[in-house]
Amino acid sequence: MEYKQFKQVIDNARAILVGKLPSPVAQVDAISYALIYKFMSDNDDDSVALGGKRAYFSGEYEKYSWHNLMSPTVTGSDRVILYRSALENMTRNPNLPPLFREIFNNATLNFNDPNTLNLFLSEIDKIKHDSGDSIGDAYEYLLSTMGSQGDLGQFRTPRHIIDFMVEMIDPDKSDKILDPACGTAGFLISAYKHIMKKYNKNRLTSEEKENIHHNFYGFDIEPNMTRIARVNMFLHGFKSPNIVEHDTLSSEDYWDDRYSVIIANPPFMTPKGGIVPHKKFGITSKKAELLFVDYITSHLKPNGRAAVIVPDGVLFGSSSAHKTLRKELIENQKLVAVISMPSGVFKPYAGVSTAILVFTKTNTGSTDRVWFYDMKADGHSLDDKRSEIKDNDIPDILQRFHNLESEKDRKRTDQSFFVDKSEIVDNNYDLSLNKYKEVEYQAIEYPPTDEILADIEQLNQEIVDNLAELKKLLNMTNSDL
User: Could you give the CA distance from residue 193 to residue 163 in angstroms, rounded to a whole number?
Assistant: First the structure.
């Protein structure tokens, strides 16, 4: 089944559900359950066609098979009862692998209208799971439309920004990759696609592909996000995705693990109840954005590389934690680049100004110089609509980033330039672009003074003449009256 057809099914399913499930999260959940449900049915059909047995819908769970569910002899009301019972009992189905039981944990049908369910399941019935890439891409499309509505709890990273960051980091088949605040697993999927494209899939052995799948890790504190991320990874070919419901900042679990690539857009906002971080962090703070960056610096392998989105305050904040973190990046890591993004990147949810920090882990030295880039356009309008436009600095950033030696002669008035470590240290480790960028003002030439005075005198005379004409007109009008 082609991606275009999958996409149309997704669009139709959302349109059917929106009247009963206005919440984008609820729509994602409903479609996720149905996609996995249909996948299991299709697998059972393939198994039977090859002379095997049904793996998922057998024994007491045979009554829930897709064919029984969609039978024309089942009434609309009975279908509602049957489908709700299937969702609620699927997590106890011993025929399901642990991943599927986790996905269906707490699943239910959150509306009672038979007509809506009939229309929805009829759309899902059009899907045939014969192409993991196509349905995975369609699911990514679903998640991107949900994110654009801003109701998934945090600011979703635009897909083109995700792909841009992955291009900079350039993950490879041997990399162990982590997103410590993975959300829907967008960064992980993009990294996986990048590796597959690099090796054109067919150049990888089955063992290499399996190893790649085992090298992707994602943490998220929110159960809905971890479920959605697992579905996303599964639909992209990961049979047992390493997506864990985990409080990265408060739990010491997995603290000793290290990664060669970490890429993330961690939460900027600290919850009202605060964060209670454990004692292994290198800074003392309760700000999520600072703790996440500190976590990343601590969990890179030697020569590991990271790209992380931070609010601008991380670059110049004056607290002890801000300064300690920036000093860590300069003195004990190799801070490669600070890419300042326009404030409209996260609209329509927020106009917060952000930057991308790119750094590597070194055990033999520190930063010698930092490359700054002032991104003015990302290919989308910076208003709430975020429409596609021609102006786009991303291709230029990538070209320059992968050829940094050619940047050494750039001036501070240019859009990108280097700053030596010594200057950054002298400025209390300030990493804000405006601290170092120079603005070139264009000189304005004025006419000679006597010409200006002559023009003023002429203007005054014109005003006097006009007033005289106006007075004559007023006198004429009065005489007529």
Answer: 10
CA distance 194 to 260: 16
How far is CA 358 from its chain centroid? Answer: 16
> Which tokens belong to 464?
């006097």
CB atoms within 10 A of CB 479: 7
Cα 480 from Cα 326, distance rounded (Å): 83
Contact 438, 413 (CB under 8 A): yes
Residue type, 111: F
Mean pLDDT of the chain: 88
Show the tokens assigned to 223. 């159960």
Lookup: tokens for 392:
């786009």
SS3 336: strand
Contact 314, 324 (CB under 8 A): no
Rounded to whole angstroms, what are the CA distances from 303 to 172, 223, 297, 353? 13, 33, 11, 29
What is the number of residues in the chain?
481
Q: Exposed, middle or buried: residue 66 (CB in 10 Å: 0-12, 13-18, 19+)?
A: buried
Q: How does 408-438 read in b/e, with b if 16+ C-beta sit within 10 Å? A: eeeeeeeebbbbebeebeeeebbbbbeebbe
Helix (H) or strand (E) holding 359: strand 354-361
* H or E element in which residue 371 lies: strand 369-374
List pLDDT tens digits, range 293-326.
Answer: 999 999 999 999 999 999 999 999 999 999 999 9
The β-bridge partners of 359 are 306, 335
Q: Identify any residues that bridge with 419 across adjacent strands, giving them in sequence order.
A: 370
pTM for this model (two decimals): 0.81
Does residue 145 or residue 112 have the better pLDDT?
112
What is the Cα 198 distance to its own chain's centre?
22
Q: Which two tokens stand for residue 176?
A: 């162990």
Contact 395, 301 (CB under 8 A): no
User: First CA to last CA across the chain, in angstroms?
Assistant: 87
Is residue 120 a contact partner of residue 38, using CB atoms and an 8 Å limit? Answer: no
Token representation of residue 335: 């801070």
Which of 304, 311, 343 minimizes the C-alpha distance to 325?
311
> For the chain, how many helices (H) and strands (E)?
17, 11
pLDDT bracket for residue 470 (50, 70, 90): confident
Indicate the SS3 state at residue 169. helix
User: Could you tell me how far CA 256 lies from the centroid of its own chain?
Assistant: 26
Sign of the dihedral defined by the CA atoms of residues 290, 330, 263, 164, in that order? positive
449: how many CB neighbours lie within 10 A of its CB? Answer: 8
**Pairing outcome for strands 216-220 and 242-245:** parallel
